[in-house]
Specification:
By secondary structure, this protein is mostly helical. Helices cover 67% and strands 4% of the residues. The termini are far apart.
């Protein structure tokens, strides 16, 4: 009986081992790596190094980036998190309004920071890399993972993707032979055309002059400042593109987030050292102080109620303690967060309800103070932003109070409120609305004078450049309609308009507002403005 040969018998060991071909890289990664180069250049040139004014390139970048991430995620069959439309929508809307109104000084640069956070949270949500599966109380961990761990942990993945693409191209011999033929054809054509050009240039002087013009154009192109600038921006965009690709491709390569919520809380167990007794005593003591504070507040109001709310009393109520109440609210949230992450046990329901209830009360009291302050003294950018932030804190306080009695995703809802309200605030031209409201108060006789510092902070100043100079024209027209210039001294106008070098009295002077508008002012011998008018002229004249 013939014995069946065993598998691998009579063959070298290296041949009997199964041959495993390397798994080819998905085309989505290759296309993503190729697209990251122009995207990174656009970001570096028009966003990262913007000169004071963001153009519509920021919206173009956001649209292309969202489309690219969506295409890669769909090609790799990655399921999106529920928050994906929220972060994509907030990011795109913010990308629309930032070129429209510019980076608003009232928001002190937070627009740029939030714009990047929205982008990171969108990528993590679309790729399923959020620590909790949604944006909740661990949003700071998601920001850390998306801003540092994933992009820098996969910083050289783009180089590997490009190398894999070149390796795959080299495997197709037909395409490689066709490429070699094409390169050879181009080189041979250039060589023969160059030789023919030199011979014809020697035969005809006009043809030689044409060649000199072409040589001059090529020399200016390669040695020009624009070419050098473009090359430098391209070099600077290389690490930016590696970061962008590392964030997206690193997220899509993983099946689970770098640090899930369960793992984070498990790692947090050794530092949960805050005893329940300590937490209860601290919160109870704070609640006792808050009770005493509100009892005294109520006694003061009951004592002042029969006398009526006079202007000095209202002013004192509005001015005293608003920012301190805002800090108390923030301190309360920090206390609750410390108990949430470091405490061994949660607070008793009654104590938690009392503490959260005082948070709502502080928010209401601070809101009343701010509303009274604005009613008495008008709007400023700082007061408007403080009012928005106070509203967000009030919503958070109510959510925490409701969370004591019923289960609901308070952190998830609170973050959505914060993000959407910030985008809505950015959609508003705060500076123009503040100036218009204050001028309306002045016209109605509510305010005896306009706050020149507020006007200057909102854009009515002579050092504005670019499109912001149109605000100067608009504000000036409002002041003219309100009759504000009449009987103003030159010293009153100096903080707002460039009158340097033309401070003579008893004559008419014109101040340039922008390229097409000016302000004609007439002063009497005492240096008081007797008339003012807006003038127009042709651009460039």
């Amino acid at each position: 009986m013939t014995e069946l040969s065993k598998e691998g018998a009579g063959r070298p060991l290296c041949e009997s081992a199964p041959k495993i071909a390397p798994k080819p890289l998905a085309k989505a990664y290759l296309w993503g790596a190729a697209a990251s180069y122009p995207l990174a250049y656009l970001y570096t040139r028009r966003i990262l190094f913007f000169a004071g004014e963001l153009g519509w390139e920021i919206l173009l970048f956001a649209l292309l980036f969202v489309a690219g991430v969506e295409a890669m995620a769909r090609a790799l069959h990655r399921k999106a998190s529920p928050e994906t439309p929220l972060w994509a929508g907030c990011w795109l809307v913010l990308s629309c309004v930032m070129p429209l109104w510019g980076v608003q000084p009232a928001l002190t640069g937070w627009q740029v920071v939030v714009w990047h956070l929205f982008a990171i949270w969108f990528v993590l949500a679309r790729c399923g890399m959020l620590a909790q599966g949604y944006t909740g109380s661990l949003c700071f961990l998601d920001g850390l993972m998306g801003g540092v761990v994933l992009p820098f942990g996969n910083f050289f993945r783009r180089i590997a993707a490009v190398g894999a693409g070149l390796h795959a191209l080299a495997q197709h011999r037909v395409k490689l032979r066709q490429t070699a033929v094409a390169v050879g054809t181009v080189l041979l054509t250039l060589l023969l055309c160059g030789t023919a050009w030199q011979l014809l240039a020697a035969a005809d002087a006009n043809f030689a002059a044409l060649g000199q013009g072409l040589d001059r154009w090529l020399d200016e192109l390669l040695n020009s400042y624009r070419f050098v600038e473009t090359f430098i921006y391209f070099l600077l965009s290389l690490p930016v593109g590696a970061w962008l690709y590392g964030l997206v491709a690193g997220s899509l390569h993983r099946e689970t987030p770098p640090c899930t919520g369960d793992r984070f809380f498990a790692l947090l167990q050794p530092v949960r050292v805050l005893p329940a007794v300590t937490a209860n005593v601290v919160v109870g003591a704070l609640s006792l102080i808050y009770t005493l504070f509100f009892v005294l507040q109520a006694a003061e109001w009951f004592a002042a109620a029969p006398l009526g709310l006079t202007a000095p009393v209202a002013a004192s109520f509005a001015v005293d303690g608003f920012w301190e109440l805002l800090r108390i609210l923030l301190m309360n949230f920090c206390v609750l967060a410390a108990i949430r992450f470091l405490g061994r046990q949660p607070l008793p329901k009654a104590l938690a309800a009392l503490f959260c209830g005082y948070g709502v009360a502080f928010a209401v009291l601070a809101g009343a103070k701010l509303a009274t302050y604005i009613h008495l003294f008008g709007y400023t950018p700082r007061r408007v932003v403080a009012g928005w932030f106070l509203c967000v804190l009030a919503v958070w306080a109510v959510l925490l109070l409701v969370r004591v009695f019923r289960v609901l995703p308070a952190a998830r809802i609170g973050l959505a409120v914060l993000a959407v309200s910030f985008v809505v605030l950015s959609c508003t031209d705060l500076e123009s609305r503040i100036v218009k409201a204050n001028v309306a108060r002045y016209t109605a006789g509510v305010d005896a004078e306009l706050d020149l510092d507020v006007l200057r902070d909102c854009g009515l100043n002579f050092w504005q450049r670019g499109r912001d100079r149109t605000k100067v024209v608009t504000y000036t027209r409002w002041l003219l309609d309100a009759g504000w210039f009449t009987d103003r001294s030159i010293q009153d106008l100096l903080p707002l308009y460039n009158l340097t070098g033309s401070l003579s009295v008893g004559q008419t002077q014109e101040v340039e507002l922008d390229d097409t508008h000016g302000l004609r002012l007439t002063f009497d011998v005492n240096g008081r403005c007797t008339s003012a008018a807006l003038t127009t002229r042709e651009k460039g004249v």
